[in-house]
Amino acid sequence: MTSMEKRLQKELQALTKDPPAGVIVNTESVSQNMSEWIVDLYGAPGSLYDGEKFQLSFKFSPRYPFDSPQVMFIGPNIPVHPHVYSNGHICLSILTDDWSPALSVTSVCLSIVSMLSSCQEKKRPPDNAIYVKTCSKNPKKTRWFYHDDTV
Amino acid sequence: MAAEGDKFVYDPERNYDDATMAQIRVMENEIASQNNIVSDRLSLQTLMEEYADADDAFKLKIKDLESRYRYMRRTRGDGNCFYRAFGFACLEQFLTDSKTLPRFKEVAQKSRDELVSLGFPQFTIEDFHESFMAAIKQVEKQCSVTELSNIFNDQGLSDYIVVYLRLLVSGYLQKEADFFANFIEGERTVKEFCNQEVEPMGKESDHIHIIALTTTLDVPVRVEYMDRVDSEKCTQHNFPEESQPSIALLYRPGHYDILYS
Protein backbone atom coordinates (compact mmCIF):
# COMPACT_ATOMS: atom_id res chain seq x y z
CA MET A 1 0.00 0.00 0.00
CA THR A 2 1.34 3.47 -0.83
CA SER A 3 1.57 6.10 1.93
CA MET A 4 -1.34 7.91 0.28
CA GLU A 5 -3.55 4.80 0.42
CA LYS A 6 -2.48 4.04 3.98
CA ARG A 7 -3.37 7.53 5.07
CA LEU A 8 -6.74 7.50 3.26
CA GLN A 9 -7.56 4.11 4.77
CA LYS A 10 -7.04 5.59 8.24
CA GLU A 11 -9.14 8.63 7.43
CA LEU A 12 -11.94 6.47 6.10
CA GLN A 13 -11.99 4.40 9.27
CA ALA A 14 -12.10 7.49 11.48
CA LEU A 15 -14.78 9.14 9.36
CA THR A 16 -17.09 6.10 9.27
CA LYS A 17 -16.60 5.25 12.93
CA ASP A 18 -16.94 8.75 14.33
CA PRO A 19 -18.52 11.07 11.72
CA PRO A 20 -19.11 14.74 12.57
CA ALA A 21 -22.75 15.92 12.55
CA GLY A 22 -24.15 16.24 9.03
CA VAL A 23 -21.24 14.45 7.30
CA ILE A 24 -21.70 11.00 5.78
CA VAL A 25 -19.06 9.43 3.58
CA ASN A 26 -20.41 7.32 0.71
CA THR A 27 -18.44 4.13 1.39
CA GLU A 28 -19.68 2.54 -1.83
CA SER A 29 -17.97 5.21 -3.93
CA VAL A 30 -14.76 4.77 -1.94
CA SER A 31 -14.69 1.00 -2.21
CA GLN A 32 -14.57 1.32 -6.00
CA ASN A 33 -11.80 3.86 -6.08
CA MET A 34 -9.76 4.89 -3.06
CA SER A 35 -8.61 8.13 -4.70
CA GLU A 36 -12.13 9.49 -5.34
CA TRP A 37 -14.63 9.93 -2.55
CA ILE A 38 -18.16 11.23 -2.41
CA VAL A 39 -19.33 12.74 0.87
CA ASP A 40 -22.93 13.68 1.68
CA LEU A 41 -23.29 16.92 3.56
CA TYR A 42 -26.41 18.10 5.38
CA GLY A 43 -27.11 21.78 6.11
CA ALA A 44 -26.84 22.40 9.86
CA PRO A 45 -30.07 22.83 11.84
CA GLY A 46 -30.86 26.49 12.36
CA SER A 47 -28.69 27.59 9.39
CA LEU A 48 -29.99 28.89 6.05
CA TYR A 49 -29.33 25.42 4.62
CA ASP A 50 -31.30 23.49 7.26
CA GLY A 51 -32.85 20.40 5.65
CA GLU A 52 -30.82 20.64 2.42
CA LYS A 53 -28.60 17.81 1.22
CA PHE A 54 -25.41 18.40 -0.75
CA GLN A 55 -22.73 16.21 -2.27
CA LEU A 56 -18.99 16.86 -2.15
CA SER A 57 -16.49 15.22 -4.44
CA PHE A 58 -12.95 14.62 -3.15
CA LYS A 59 -10.12 13.65 -5.50
CA PHE A 60 -6.70 12.73 -4.14
CA SER A 61 -3.40 12.79 -6.01
CA PRO A 62 -0.63 10.26 -5.26
CA ARG A 63 1.10 13.09 -3.37
CA TYR A 64 -1.74 13.35 -0.82
CA PRO A 65 -1.51 14.47 2.02
CA PHE A 66 1.18 16.84 0.69
CA ASP A 67 -1.04 17.87 -2.21
CA SER A 68 -4.39 19.16 -1.04
CA PRO A 69 -7.41 17.18 -2.19
CA GLN A 70 -9.46 18.56 -5.08
CA VAL A 71 -12.83 19.33 -3.48
CA MET A 72 -16.03 20.59 -5.10
CA PHE A 73 -19.80 20.35 -4.82
CA ILE A 74 -21.42 18.02 -7.34
CA GLY A 75 -24.94 16.80 -8.10
CA PRO A 76 -28.28 18.54 -8.49
CA ASN A 77 -28.03 20.80 -5.42
CA ILE A 78 -25.12 23.25 -5.33
CA PRO A 79 -25.47 25.50 -2.27
CA VAL A 80 -26.19 29.14 -3.07
CA HIS A 81 -23.42 30.82 -1.07
CA PRO A 82 -21.08 33.82 -1.63
CA HIS A 83 -18.06 31.45 -1.75
CA VAL A 84 -19.56 28.68 -3.84
CA TYR A 85 -19.73 29.04 -7.62
CA SER A 86 -22.64 27.55 -9.53
CA ASN A 87 -20.31 24.94 -11.07
CA GLY A 88 -19.51 23.63 -7.58
CA HIS A 89 -16.13 25.28 -7.10
CA ILE A 90 -15.47 26.49 -3.55
CA CYS A 91 -13.36 29.49 -2.56
CA LEU A 92 -11.83 28.26 0.71
CA SER A 93 -8.20 28.90 1.62
CA ILE A 94 -7.49 25.51 3.23
CA LEU A 95 -8.17 23.87 -0.15
CA THR A 96 -5.10 25.56 -1.67
CA ASP A 97 -2.80 28.12 0.04
CA ASP A 98 -3.49 27.15 3.63
CA TRP A 99 -3.65 23.39 3.12
CA SER A 100 -1.51 21.42 5.57
CA PRO A 101 -0.76 17.68 5.53
CA ALA A 102 -2.13 17.58 9.07
CA LEU A 103 -5.59 18.49 7.78
CA SER A 104 -7.97 15.75 6.64
CA VAL A 105 -11.22 14.98 4.84
CA THR A 106 -12.96 15.43 8.17
CA SER A 107 -11.45 18.86 8.82
CA VAL A 108 -12.28 20.00 5.26
CA CYS A 109 -15.91 18.88 5.71
CA LEU A 110 -16.13 20.67 9.06
CA SER A 111 -14.78 23.88 7.51
CA ILE A 112 -17.33 23.69 4.71
CA VAL A 113 -20.21 23.02 7.14
CA SER A 114 -19.08 25.98 9.22
CA MET A 115 -18.73 28.17 6.11
CA LEU A 116 -22.34 27.34 5.17
CA SER A 117 -23.60 27.80 8.73
CA SER A 118 -22.22 31.31 9.09
CA CYS A 119 -23.88 32.51 5.86
CA GLN A 120 -26.23 35.48 6.33
CA GLU A 121 -27.73 35.68 2.86
CA LYS A 122 -28.01 33.09 0.13
CA LYS A 123 -26.36 34.54 -2.95
CA ARG A 124 -23.74 33.57 -5.54
CA PRO A 125 -20.27 35.15 -5.66
CA PRO A 126 -20.39 38.50 -7.52
CA ASP A 127 -18.10 37.17 -10.28
CA ASN A 128 -19.98 33.89 -10.74
CA ALA A 129 -20.94 34.34 -14.39
CA ILE A 130 -17.48 35.23 -15.68
CA TYR A 131 -15.71 32.70 -13.46
CA VAL A 132 -17.87 29.75 -14.49
CA LYS A 133 -17.36 30.68 -18.14
CA THR A 134 -13.55 30.91 -18.03
CA CYS A 135 -12.34 28.65 -15.20
CA SER A 136 -10.57 25.33 -15.48
CA LYS A 137 -12.53 22.15 -14.69
CA ASN A 138 -10.19 21.61 -11.76
CA PRO A 139 -10.74 24.21 -9.02
CA LYS A 140 -7.16 23.71 -7.83
CA LYS A 141 -6.02 25.28 -11.10
CA THR A 142 -7.64 28.53 -10.11
CA ARG A 143 -5.48 31.09 -8.31
CA TRP A 144 -7.83 32.07 -5.56
CA PHE A 145 -7.66 35.36 -3.78
CA TYR A 146 -8.99 35.08 -0.27
CA HIS A 147 -10.30 38.40 0.84
CA ASP A 148 -13.24 37.85 3.06
CA ASP A 149 -13.33 35.43 5.95
CA THR A 150 -16.47 36.80 7.49
CA VAL A 151 -19.01 34.95 5.34
CA MET B 1 1.38 34.77 -27.80
CA ALA B 2 1.80 38.47 -28.40
CA ALA B 3 4.70 39.54 -30.62
CA GLU B 4 7.62 41.18 -28.88
CA GLY B 5 6.99 44.83 -28.27
CA ASP B 6 3.22 44.44 -28.31
CA LYS B 7 1.58 45.82 -25.26
CA PHE B 8 -0.03 43.22 -23.01
CA VAL B 9 -3.78 43.57 -23.00
CA TYR B 10 -5.74 41.74 -20.35
CA ASP B 11 -8.53 39.68 -21.83
CA PRO B 12 -11.17 39.07 -19.15
CA GLU B 13 -12.63 36.21 -21.20
CA ARG B 14 -9.37 34.27 -20.98
CA ASN B 15 -8.18 32.02 -18.18
CA TYR B 16 -4.61 32.94 -17.17
CA ASP B 17 -4.49 30.80 -14.03
CA ASP B 18 -3.59 27.54 -15.74
CA ALA B 19 -0.56 29.07 -17.45
CA THR B 20 0.59 30.89 -14.31
CA MET B 21 0.35 27.81 -12.14
CA ALA B 22 2.02 25.63 -14.75
CA GLN B 23 4.87 28.14 -14.73
CA ILE B 24 5.10 27.93 -10.92
CA ARG B 25 5.29 24.10 -11.16
CA VAL B 26 8.09 24.38 -13.74
CA MET B 27 10.05 26.65 -11.40
CA GLU B 28 9.52 24.30 -8.45
CA ASN B 29 10.71 21.34 -10.50
CA GLU B 30 13.77 23.26 -11.65
CA ILE B 31 14.73 24.01 -8.05
CA ALA B 32 14.12 20.38 -7.10
CA SER B 33 16.18 18.92 -9.95
CA GLN B 34 19.18 21.20 -9.41
CA ASN B 35 19.75 20.77 -5.69
CA ASN B 36 19.76 18.05 -3.08
CA ILE B 37 17.29 18.67 -0.30
CA VAL B 38 20.28 18.80 2.06
CA SER B 39 23.74 18.98 0.46
CA ASP B 40 27.02 17.37 1.49
CA ARG B 41 29.37 19.34 3.69
CA LEU B 42 31.00 22.00 1.53
CA SER B 43 33.91 24.35 2.11
CA LEU B 44 32.82 27.92 2.88
CA GLN B 45 34.85 28.81 -0.18
CA THR B 46 31.78 27.91 -2.26
CA LEU B 47 29.97 30.81 -0.64
CA MET B 48 32.68 33.22 -1.72
CA GLU B 49 32.49 31.83 -5.25
CA GLU B 50 28.76 32.39 -5.28
CA TYR B 51 29.30 36.08 -4.45
CA ALA B 52 32.29 36.58 -6.77
CA ASP B 53 30.46 39.32 -8.67
CA ALA B 54 28.71 40.82 -5.67
CA ASP B 55 29.62 44.06 -3.96
CA ASP B 56 32.18 44.24 -1.16
CA ALA B 57 29.57 44.36 1.56
CA PHE B 58 28.83 40.65 1.06
CA LYS B 59 32.49 39.69 0.66
CA LEU B 60 33.36 41.33 3.98
CA LYS B 61 30.60 39.41 5.66
CA ILE B 62 31.79 36.12 4.17
CA LYS B 63 35.32 36.90 5.40
CA ASP B 64 33.82 37.47 8.83
CA LEU B 65 32.04 34.10 8.61
CA GLU B 66 35.27 32.39 7.54
CA SER B 67 36.91 33.53 10.76
CA ARG B 68 34.42 31.44 12.72
CA TYR B 69 33.21 28.68 10.37
CA ARG B 70 34.86 26.34 7.90
CA TYR B 71 32.04 24.40 6.29
CA MET B 72 28.43 24.71 5.30
CA ARG B 73 25.63 22.45 4.18
CA ARG B 74 23.15 23.93 1.74
CA THR B 75 19.43 23.25 1.87
CA ARG B 76 16.92 23.43 -0.95
CA GLY B 77 15.08 26.75 -1.22
CA ASP B 78 11.55 25.39 -1.05
CA GLY B 79 10.24 27.37 1.91
CA ASN B 80 10.98 24.49 4.30
CA CYS B 81 14.70 25.24 4.59
CA PHE B 82 14.64 26.36 8.23
CA TYR B 83 12.99 23.12 9.35
CA ARG B 84 15.34 20.93 7.32
CA ALA B 85 18.45 22.88 8.33
CA PHE B 86 17.53 22.88 12.00
CA GLY B 87 16.27 19.27 11.95
CA PHE B 88 19.39 17.96 10.26
CA ALA B 89 21.88 19.96 12.34
CA CYS B 90 20.05 19.03 15.53
CA LEU B 91 20.13 15.28 14.84
CA GLU B 92 23.66 15.39 13.44
CA GLN B 93 25.07 16.92 16.63
CA PHE B 94 23.77 13.90 18.58
CA LEU B 95 25.96 11.65 16.40
CA THR B 96 29.07 13.21 17.94
CA ASP B 97 27.65 14.14 21.33
CA SER B 98 25.05 11.65 22.47
CA LYS B 99 24.96 12.73 26.14
CA THR B 100 21.77 14.75 25.81
CA LEU B 101 20.12 12.47 23.24
CA PRO B 102 18.05 10.47 25.78
CA ARG B 103 16.48 13.66 27.11
CA PHE B 104 15.82 14.94 23.58
CA LYS B 105 14.24 11.62 22.63
CA GLU B 106 11.95 11.78 25.65
CA VAL B 107 10.85 15.33 24.78
CA ALA B 108 10.17 14.24 21.20
CA GLN B 109 8.30 11.12 22.32
CA LYS B 110 6.03 13.05 24.69
CA SER B 111 5.36 15.84 22.20
CA ARG B 112 2.76 13.81 20.32
CA ASP B 113 0.44 13.52 23.31
CA GLU B 114 0.85 17.22 23.99
CA LEU B 115 -0.24 18.00 20.43
CA VAL B 116 -3.23 15.66 20.80
CA SER B 117 -4.20 17.43 24.03
CA LEU B 118 -4.07 20.74 22.14
CA GLY B 119 -6.69 19.39 19.73
CA PHE B 120 -4.60 18.03 16.83
CA PRO B 121 -6.26 14.85 15.54
CA GLN B 122 -4.19 11.83 16.51
CA PHE B 123 -4.68 9.89 13.28
CA THR B 124 -3.21 12.63 11.13
CA ILE B 125 -0.26 13.51 13.36
CA GLU B 126 0.91 10.03 14.33
CA ASP B 127 2.44 9.24 10.92
CA PHE B 128 4.53 12.40 11.07
CA HIS B 129 5.53 11.72 14.65
CA GLU B 130 6.58 8.17 13.76
CA SER B 131 8.86 9.41 10.96
CA PHE B 132 10.49 11.89 13.32
CA MET B 133 11.00 9.22 15.99
CA ALA B 134 12.36 6.78 13.39
CA ALA B 135 15.04 9.31 12.45
CA ILE B 136 15.90 9.84 16.13
CA LYS B 137 16.21 6.07 16.61
CA GLN B 138 18.63 5.89 13.69
CA VAL B 139 20.76 8.53 15.38
CA GLU B 140 20.52 6.62 18.66
CA LYS B 141 21.97 3.60 16.84
CA GLN B 142 24.88 5.84 15.81
CA CYS B 143 24.11 5.70 12.10
CA SER B 144 26.57 7.39 9.76
CA VAL B 145 26.20 11.01 8.67
CA THR B 146 25.53 9.63 5.17
CA GLU B 147 22.61 7.59 6.46
CA LEU B 148 21.17 10.65 8.19
CA SER B 149 21.69 12.60 4.98
CA ASN B 150 19.86 9.88 3.05
CA ILE B 151 16.83 10.25 5.34
CA PHE B 152 16.75 14.00 4.79
CA ASN B 153 17.21 13.62 1.03
CA ASP B 154 14.33 11.16 0.69
CA GLN B 155 11.51 13.51 -0.28
CA GLY B 156 8.84 11.47 1.51
CA LEU B 157 10.69 10.92 4.80
CA SER B 158 12.12 14.43 4.76
CA ASP B 159 8.70 16.03 4.24
CA TYR B 160 7.14 13.93 7.01
CA ILE B 161 9.78 15.24 9.41
CA VAL B 162 9.21 18.82 8.25
CA VAL B 163 5.47 18.48 8.85
CA TYR B 164 6.11 17.25 12.37
CA LEU B 165 8.49 20.13 13.16
CA ARG B 166 5.86 22.53 11.81
CA LEU B 167 3.26 20.97 14.11
CA LEU B 168 5.62 21.36 17.07
CA VAL B 169 5.98 25.07 16.28
CA SER B 170 2.22 25.45 15.90
CA GLY B 171 1.58 23.57 19.14
CA TYR B 172 4.03 25.68 21.12
CA LEU B 173 2.74 28.99 19.72
CA GLN B 174 -0.84 27.97 20.54
CA LYS B 175 0.09 26.78 24.01
CA GLU B 176 1.73 30.16 24.69
CA ALA B 177 -0.85 32.10 22.68
CA ASP B 178 -1.25 34.87 25.29
CA PHE B 179 2.41 35.76 24.92
CA PHE B 180 2.82 35.32 21.16
CA ALA B 181 -0.39 37.22 20.33
CA ASN B 182 1.68 40.41 20.83
CA PHE B 183 4.07 39.52 18.01
CA ILE B 184 1.62 38.60 15.29
CA GLU B 185 1.04 41.11 12.54
CA GLY B 186 -2.34 41.88 11.10
CA GLU B 187 -5.70 41.15 12.58
CA ARG B 188 -5.03 37.49 13.19
CA THR B 189 -5.31 35.20 16.17
CA VAL B 190 -2.36 32.95 17.03
CA LYS B 191 -4.36 29.99 15.78
CA GLU B 192 -5.06 31.67 12.45
CA PHE B 193 -1.38 32.56 12.15
CA CYS B 194 -0.47 28.90 12.77
CA ASN B 195 -3.02 27.68 10.23
CA GLN B 196 -1.73 30.10 7.59
CA GLU B 197 1.99 30.61 8.26
CA VAL B 198 3.20 27.55 10.17
CA GLU B 199 1.32 24.37 9.32
CA PRO B 200 1.19 24.58 5.49
CA MET B 201 4.31 23.27 3.73
CA GLY B 202 6.53 25.84 2.05
CA LYS B 203 5.64 28.75 4.32
CA GLU B 204 8.85 30.51 5.37
CA SER B 205 10.05 30.91 8.93
CA ASP B 206 10.76 33.98 10.99
CA HIS B 207 12.03 34.67 14.53
CA ILE B 208 8.80 33.55 16.08
CA HIS B 209 9.06 30.08 14.47
CA ILE B 210 12.68 29.71 15.59
CA ILE B 211 11.87 30.72 19.16
CA ALA B 212 9.04 28.19 19.27
CA LEU B 213 10.99 25.23 17.86
CA THR B 214 14.18 25.77 19.85
CA THR B 215 12.21 26.26 23.07
CA THR B 216 9.84 23.35 22.66
CA LEU B 217 12.65 20.92 21.77
CA ASP B 218 15.11 22.59 24.16
CA VAL B 219 17.82 22.69 21.48
CA PRO B 220 19.35 26.17 21.15
CA VAL B 221 20.61 27.47 17.82
CA ARG B 222 22.81 30.36 16.70
CA VAL B 223 21.77 32.18 13.54
CA GLU B 224 24.30 34.25 11.58
CA TYR B 225 22.48 36.95 9.63
CA MET B 226 24.13 37.80 6.35
CA ASP B 227 21.93 40.55 5.02
CA ARG B 228 22.08 44.05 3.60
CA VAL B 229 22.42 45.62 7.03
CA ASP B 230 25.29 48.10 6.83
CA SER B 231 28.08 46.44 8.79
CA GLU B 232 31.21 44.47 8.00
CA LYS B 233 30.21 41.54 10.12
CA CYS B 234 27.30 39.16 10.18
CA THR B 235 24.87 39.78 13.00
CA GLN B 236 24.68 36.87 15.43
CA HIS B 237 21.61 35.88 17.31
CA ASN B 238 21.23 33.04 19.79
CA PHE B 239 17.87 31.39 20.34
CA PRO B 240 17.18 31.54 23.25
CA GLU B 241 19.27 34.64 23.88
CA GLU B 242 21.27 33.54 26.93
CA SER B 243 22.02 30.04 25.54
CA GLN B 244 25.27 28.49 24.29
CA PRO B 245 24.17 26.79 21.07
CA SER B 246 26.25 24.05 19.52
CA ILE B 247 24.53 24.29 16.14
CA ALA B 248 24.62 27.27 13.80
CA LEU B 249 22.59 28.32 10.79
CA LEU B 250 23.37 30.87 8.12
CA TYR B 251 20.51 33.20 7.24
CA ARG B 252 20.37 35.06 3.99
CA PRO B 253 17.11 36.88 3.25
CA GLY B 254 14.53 34.17 2.73
CA HIS B 255 16.89 31.24 3.25
CA TYR B 256 18.64 29.12 5.90
CA ASP B 257 21.71 26.85 5.50
CA ILE B 258 23.82 25.01 8.08
CA LEU B 259 27.23 26.26 9.29
CA TYR B 260 30.10 24.24 10.86
CA SER B 261 33.11 25.52 12.73
Describe the fold and architecture.
The complex is a heterodimer of chains A (151) and B (261). Chain A is α+β, with helices and mostly antiparallel strands. Helix content of chain A is 27%, strand content 15%. Chain A has one domain: Ubiquitin Conjugating Enzyme (Roll), CATH 3.10.110.10. Chain A has a 4-stranded antiparallel beta sheet. Chain A is globular and about 45 Å long. Chain A starts with a helix and ends in a 17-residue tail after the last helix. The mean pLDDT of chain A is 91. By secondary structure, chain B is of the alpha+beta class. In chain B, 54% of the residues lie in helices and 12% in strands. Chain B has a 6-stranded mixed beta sheet with strand order 1-2-6-5-3-4. In chain B, helix 6 packs across helix 8 and helix 8 packs antiparallel against helix 10. At the A-B interface, helix 1 and helix 4 of A face helix 1, helix 6 and helix 8 of B. Chain A: InterPro entries: Ub_conjugating_enzyme, UBC, UBQ-conjugating_enzyme/RWD.
